[in-house]
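ingest -> fold -> write
write: protein_1
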Amino acid sequence: MSGRPALAPPGADAAIWHDVECSSYDVDLSLWRELADESAGPVLELGCGTGRVALDLAARGHEVTGLDSDAELVTALEERASERGLPARGVVGDVRSFALGRRFDLAVLPMQVVQLLRGRDQRASMLAAASSHLEPGAVLAIALADPLEGVPAGPITPPLPDVLERDGWVFSSIPVAVREDAGAVVVERVREAVSPAGELSRAEVTISLERVTAAMMEQEGANAGYTVRPSRQVTATSEYVGTTVVLLEAPS
C-alpha cells in the first residue's frame, strides 16, 4: 500500500470519471432524440458509457441497447435504468467486433467515440459490425469533433473544470493542454478528487482523438456499402467544440 489517498471511492473509478467529464454535455441530445423519434424501432448506442444518451432516449420511450468495452460503465448504465424503470440494457463488447443476434432501426456513436478507434481498418471493422445489426435502410449516426483549427498547441488557458459531488467526495477534471501527435489530437487533463476527510488526490490523463473528417467517414461508409445521407451539425458552445454527425443508411 502506498499510503496515497484514492482518486475515487473503491470500485467506482471509471464510472465516476466518465460522469464527471461527460454527463453535463447535453447540447447533442436534441439531435439523438430527433433521430430516435424518426426510427421505427429499437436503438443501439455504441460506446454508451454510463448511459448519458441511452437513458435519455429510454426515458422518451425508446428501447435502447448500449454497448461499451468497459464493464464498469455498462454496470452503471444497467443499474440506473433499473432504478428508473427504463427500457435500456447494457452489453459489454467491442464496437469493432460485436454480435448481439438482433437488428436495430438506429445506431448512434455520440461524443466522438469513432475517433477513439485507430486507423481506417478499425473504423471499417466497426462499420461492418454495425451494418450486420441494422435493418435495411436504418441509419448509423456518427459524431465527429470539428477540426480544432485556431486552438493553440501546448498549454491552454484552462476553462472552468467539470465538477461532480457524490457521497461526500468532490471530483473535478480540467483540460490543461492540447497537442497534435501523428494525426491525432491529444487532450491532456488533470483529475482531482477530494475525499470526505479532505484528502486530495491528483492524476494526469491523456485522451487521444484521431483526426477524422466528415468527408473521410462518408467515403469509408460508402466503401462499406452504406448510402450517405446529408450530415447534421451540433453547434459549438462556449464550453464545447461543435460536432458534425455523419448519417449513413444501411444497405438493403
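write: protein_2
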Amino acid sequence: MKTASITEHLVYKTDKPAISVMLESDHSKEIRILMRKGQLMKEHKAPNAIVVALFEGEINFGVNGETLKLKKGDLIALEANVPHDLYCTEDAIIRLSLSKNDSVDRVNKIVD
C-alpha cells in the first residue's frame, strides 16, 4: 500500500507550473501540478491515455479546437496523442494520472 497527499507541502513557482510525482503504483504515476493564475502549459500530447482532475482552482483546458472551463472537482480523460493545453485562470492544484510507461520528465519539458 502507498499513500500520498495532494494538499501537503505545496510549493508554487512564480515563473512556471510546479510538477511533482505524488506516488507510483504498478500501473500508473500520480502527478501533482501547481499552477498560478496566468501560467500556461503550452500545447502538448501524451503517448498514452491520461486523466486530469482539478482539485482546486480554475483552468482553461484547450482540446480539439475548443476551450473547456474546468473548475474544482472536474475531471477530463483523454486518449493517447490528443493535443491539449492548460491556461490557469485561478491558482490551481491539478492531479494528472499517467501510464506507468510515461515519463514525468516529458511533463517537465512542457513547462521548461
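write: annotation protein_2
The chain has one domain: 18-111.
Residues 104-111 form the longest helix (8 residues).
pipeline exit 0
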